[in-house]
Write a structure and sequence with these properties.
- This protein is mostly helical.
- The protein folds into two domains: 100 residues, no CATH class; 39 residues, no CATH class.
- The chain has seven helices and no strands.
- Helix 1 crosses helix 3 and helix 6 runs parallel beside helix 7.
Length: 145
């Protein structure tokens, strides 16, 4: 089983893609960390993961069961491709949207601003949710923003 110890390092960036899907590699890391009892501050099936699950129509438990069975990233992707009928265009545009998605009035703009001020007050390049997660991961493991 591929065990990810998220008490020692963060999961992969939400920007990384597997099968064209952003978020998925990070979600798999968090699932593996949870199964190993090494999730640290990370949560499998969190609101970010829910974007992927909602888009694909998959259940978090189904993915977790694949990870329990010791499936690799490529084996999980093969299973997803069998069960999700999305075109390459749909996946591309969904991923591009999430790569560029920033806070909106309905989605925690104040939380976003406060978190950036707390983690990286001198940075003016943190504009998307993925930017914020990358900075948070880096700072959480001792990096200087």
């Amino acid at each position: 089983m591929n065990i990810t110890d998220l008490t020692q390092r963060p999961p992969r960036s939400p920007r990384l893609k597997l099968g064209g899907y952003v978020i998925l590699p990070r979600m798999l890391d968090k699932g593996r960390g949870e199964l190993a009892g090494k999730a640290g501050e990370y949560h499998y099936a969190c609101p970010l993961d829910q974007h992927f699950l909602s888009f694909t129509g998959l259940a978090a438990e189904d993915i977790l069961n694949l990870l329990k069975a010791g499936k690799s990233d490529s084996e999980v992707l093969a299973w997803i491709r069998e069960h999700v009928k999305k075109s390459d265009w749909d996946i591309f545009y969904w991923s591009e949207f999430h790569l560029r998605r920033g806070p909106t009035d309905n989605e925690g703009r104040q939380h976003f601003i406060e978190t950036v001020q707390q983690l990286a007050p001198d940075r003016d390049d943190v504009a998307t949710w993925f930017d914020l997660l990358d900075v948070d991961d880096f700072v959480s493991f001792g990096g200087a923003a």
